[in-house]
Amino acid sequence: MNSATSDLPLWTPMDVRLGITKSADVAFPLRWGIIGASRISAQWVMCLHACEGATVTAVAAREADRAKEFAAKYGITSAYGSYAEMVAAEDVDIVYVGTITRLHKAHSLLAIEASKHVLCEKPLAENASDARAMYAAAKEKDVMLQDGMWTRFFPAVEHARAAIEAGTIGEVVMTQSDFFDPIYTIQAAPLAFGATAVPTAITAAGRKAGGAIVEYGDDKCAVLTFPPFNCELPEVTEFIGTKGRITLEQPGHCPTRITIRVPPPNGVPSRYRTANAPAPVQHFEYPLPGSVSIPTAFPNQHGFLYQAEAVHRCLAAGLRQCPQYNQDESLHAMDLLTKINKAKQAAAQR
Q1: Engineered SS bond to 111: which of 37, 87, 224, 310, CB 3.0-4.6 Å?
Q2: What contacts 342, CB < 8 A, 6 or more positions away?
């Protein structure tokens, strides 16, 4: 990798900031095929319409009529009642897998076997073993398998990552994150501590509501909570360091606001060394792209565009992964998800 370009804004996409892609390559032409005529697939397609190089050429669903209805609604040329037929189509370069999690492995492997690039919705698979098999298949075929963790591509998250790397908040000692879908909170751990950090202990409990503490040695940990869907959850992710704190504001899994608090030198913890004066606060706002229109969208779903554009830039550069969420980070998170699920099951049986 080339060294980072220091004069770029902190919110600059990581692939561009590292100098490994070109901003203009969002126009790199890719023909997308969609597996699954789901609501999430529809929102992905609406974002692709705003990506300069993207053309959605095909969709496949279990029933041909459903695929045809989806194609007609979203201006897609071809509709298939067979996933195998669609991934074999000559006018498909890359496949988006928008089906349920238990089908991610099978559908991704189907596309990979056809030598098509794949972006698969998160979580990438049901467990880490399946994820490794998927990545191995993609390597064998020399195609991209990109984990669909779109959180990592938001400008607010790009800013947070660059600030952490720059040492703005010192050494990160804790990350705290909450969301009802555990994989969103789990991905905060490798972002805070790096993909190569080795967890030394994992404690987890809970069924419909629960949480986990992932320890990295004696002085670092990720505190992850999974509230049930039907509650007023905070949806905030924080990175707590020896010199300051970064907050990805609600909704933390797809944030448009970031807050950075850095006390004066020797002012940490701030209120205990500054006569109860709070740390100075910096707020940064990153509005959603105005080029995307999604009626009744999930929160900030317009931000799919950030990941789509990164995929175009990276494939134009000949890359097989996006640095915002590469294979190492994806597998770190999948390993944690697998171990947390096992720990929760064991706790429930006691």
Answers
A1: 87
A2: none
